[in-house]
Predict the structure.
Amino acid sequence: MARTARARAPDARPFAGQPPEPSQDSPEQENKVSASITIRLDEILAERGMTLTELSERVGITVVNLSVLKNGRARAIRFSTLAALCAELGCQPGDLLSCQPDRSGA
């Protein structure tokens, strides 16, 4: 039997391995952030009487990476890292993360 090619509907999902179709939003719209997320690691460590070095040893995350989180220079955090921190500190993700509205009116 001969195989025939089927036309793909315009709104159909791409085949596996093909990149997703570009977004209709402009790059400027996609990069706008109306709030900033901060990590309250300093406050929680102080409440627990724990140092960054001690937390690093207990969780298995380098002091440098924890310092990046603590000082607000992190652009992302893995769920596995967040879960490990919460387990060791005895807290919930919401205790570690804080969302501050952007005051620039974006």
In short: The first helix runs from residue 27 to 31. The CA atoms of residues 67 and 73 lie 9 Å apart.
